[in-house]
Amino acid sequence: MGKKKKRDYEAEGPNDPSLANGASQSSEKQRKKKSKKTEDVKSPANEMPTVSIAVPGSIIDNAQSLELATRLAGQVARAAAIFRIDEIVVVDNKSISEDTSTETVLNNSDENESGAAFLLRILTYLETPQYLRKDLFPKHNSLRFVGLLSPLDAPHHLRKHEWCSYREGITRKNPDGGSVGTLVDVGLSKNIVVNEVVEAGKRVTVAMGTNRNTDRDQPRKIVSPSTPRKEGMYWGYRVRYASNISSLFKNSPYKGGYDHRIGTSEHGLVINSSELSLPPFRHLLIAFGGLAGLEECVEEDENLKGKTVGDIFDSYLNTCPHQGSRTIRTEEAIFISLQYFQEPINRVSTKYQHVD
């Protein structure tokens, strides 16, 4: 949904002549793929499907100032929180895959960051509860305007007076050298104790239970960040870096990768949201293009030579047909598309809630 680079047409639907040799053929091929996946993919009753979005870091490069770039990143984060996205993958535009970790990309140098690194930093910062940010994020030029952004106000961004069965915390150096356990700052008036030894400065998820007694003789337990989610709570998104499109798929944190991949573009197939039927999936990926769309991202990836968007995605959809503006900005496309996918995703999720 960026600027048209090669073809200049508006997708009208499966019967549009301009789609006859493109999206319509691709959709037929993808329907065959889907039918096979529908038979193969089954999800355990306690495993709700996850939804990931892939966003190009190049959208930051088009911002005219640091403040506007920060506001753009804030819009992406807000969209992810509003629509309960589990993972945001920031895709760079490197032609050759580099298996660089998110931590490597986020160095503490105050030099100008690439668009991808900047977006990673802001997204990670905003997902972090406010009471942990000072410890986890050293001062950095890229964070200069984050105070202007609307808070995510996600369920794990708790205030001091709020009690929840889980809280995010940071481990502290235990002053009692001989004691067993670790002090953790979970944003309450005093630190709590967990029943295991963890080095200081680590972000952890703590099961708080219902007992509001925070004395040291009432130790809590560290749990996986996915534990609250298994109980139906939205617990924020994780952020990951991918050097290009092929790396996006190759380095998925989920076992077996993403079992249904959707690409979005103005050149995609037009289907009403109410008529879109997604196959059962464990891990859904929705990818967005940059200024020149997903097509350019695929063309520039040397690992995908000879392949088209239709070859690497199971579905290739236009979520905003008949657009009045010649361009839809990526941050706008994210809001539009995530609303479009709400009903189809909810239908799949509802099915899983009835699995024995």
Automatic annotation (TrEMBL):
Coiled coil: none annotated. This is RNA methyltransferase. Belongs to the class IV-like SAM-binding methyltransferase superfamily. Pfam families: Methyltrn_RNA_3. It comes from the Eukaryota. Gene3D superfamilies: 3.40.1280.10, Nucleic acid-binding proteins. InterPro entries: Alpha/beta_knot_MTases (IPR029028), NA-bd_OB-fold (IPR012340), Put_MeTrfase-C9orf114-like (IPR003750), tRNA_m1G_MTases_N (IPR029026). Residues 1-48 are annotated as: Disordered. PANTHER family: CLASS IV SAM-BINDING METHYLTRANSFERASE-RELATED, METHYLTRANSFERASE C9ORF114-RELATED.
